[in-house]
Amino acid sequence: MHITFNQIVFLLQGTLWTIALALIGFVGGGVIGMGIALMRVSRSAVVRWIAAGYVQIVQGIPLPVLMFLSYFGLAITGVQVPAVVAAGVSMTIFAAAFLGEIWRGSIQAVPKTQWEAADSLGLSRFQMMVDVILPQAVRLSIPPTVGFMVQIVKNTSYAVVIGFTELTQSGKIVNNVIFQPFVVFTIVGAIYFCLCSPLAHASRRLDLRLRSRGA
Fold it and tell me: Where along the chain do its domains lie?
């Protein structure tokens, strides 16, 4: 049995859910991740410790386990959440830890002389970060951030553990009907490639551009 047009459409619908889940993870993770990054460079040791603890815990737990706990763990306590909510929350928690570290590294990569110059001008900590440090850190963080977006797209496939029908789960469903795993997952792989390749290429180009400007 060959794959049909309707089954191709079904795979594309799964692709849309993959894109949506990746966007949820990136946007939600970005908001929390920025807070984590700022906490990691705080003058307060307690605040830095809390942020570091969050990063270490989340980075030490595989994403499928986070999704499993979000979906089935909450169900054990009597709290029922849709698979899309559990997957979105898990992606957000996961992305926040990694984006927070990427942006923390970018903030700390700003030359020390810039911090000292801002401090000598009598700027408050807030003014220093907003007017001097963050604009430079954003420029440094763009390549690794775009590169991490590739990982976010790929990691949406882990939502299969809670039965969420994104691209990988769509492929499994189609394969269960036509029993053509090579054909089906070649198509699935090609779709992932089309989603991730432009991001990976953009990350490399941005990194090379920043390196050439800094040379």
Answer: 5-214
